[in-house]
Amino acid sequence: MKNFISKFSSHLILILISILSIFPFIWLISTSLKGAGENIFAYPPVLIPKDITFDNYIGVWKRVNLLGYFLNSTIVAAGTVLLNLILSSLAAYPLARMEFRGKKITFFAILATIMIPFQAIMLPVYLITIKLHLIDSVNNIAGYTGLIMPFAVSAFGIFLMRQAFLGIPKEMEEAAIIDGCNAFQVFWRVLLPMVKPSLAVLAIFTFIGSWGEFLWPSIVLTKESLYTLPVGVNNLQGMFSANWRYIAAGSIISIIPIIVFFLAMQRYFISGENEGAVKG
Length: 280
Description:
The chain is an all-alpha fold. It is built from 13 helices and no strands. The longest helix is centred in the first third of the chain and has 32 residues, at about 65-95.
C-alpha cells in the first residue's frame, strides 16, 4: 500500500508538471482557432473556442510570406545543424581519444565558454560579421552565412560528443588500427557510426535553437526576403496594434517543423549499437 501511494504521488506530480508545461502551447492553439467575434482576453479564460475556425491560418498565410520565411529558416537550421555535427565531432575526437600537451586546459577552456551568454559577445561578433561582409546587403549567400557561422559550433556540442566518444570501448579503436585504419578512418568509419544517438541529441538541440533564434537574425538582416520564421512572424505585431490570433496561428505553424524533426530523430535516443561490441 505504501509503495502504491508513493508511485501514485510521483505520477500525479509528474502529470501536474506536464500539464503546466504544455498549457501555454494548448492556449496558443486555442487562440489560433478563435474567430474575430470571440474575446481572447475573456475572464475567466475560455480554453475551448465556441466556433472553431481556420481563418487565422489562412489569413496569416496570405498576409506574410510564410513560405519564404520557412525556406530561409530551413536553410539556416540545416546549415547550422550540419556544421555543428561535423565540427563538434572533429573537435571532440582528439579531446576524447588522443593525448597531447594542454589537453585538459583546452577542454576546460572550451567548457568555460558555456557560462558566457551570446548577448555578451554579440557586439564583437556583429562587427566581425560586418568586416567579413557576411550580411544580406552583399548577397543572399553572404546573408545566410552570417546567420549560420556564429552558431556553427558550440561548447555543449563538443562536450556531448566527447562524452559519447569516451563511452566507446578502446578495443574497437585498437581493432580498427590493427586492420590498417588511420586516425581519420577510425573516427569516420568506426567511432562516428557508434555515436548516432548523441549525434541525434545534438542535432535536435541545435535545430530547436537555430529554428527559434530571433535576436541575431533581427539584428543582422535588412532584407525582408531573407527573414526567418521568428522574425517574419514578429512582423505581424505592429507598433500600436497586434492581431494576436494571427500571431498565434503563425507561431503554431513555425513550431510544426520542430515537432516533426523531433519525432523523426527520437528513435536514435536509445540505441544498443554498442552492446555486445566487445566480448570477454
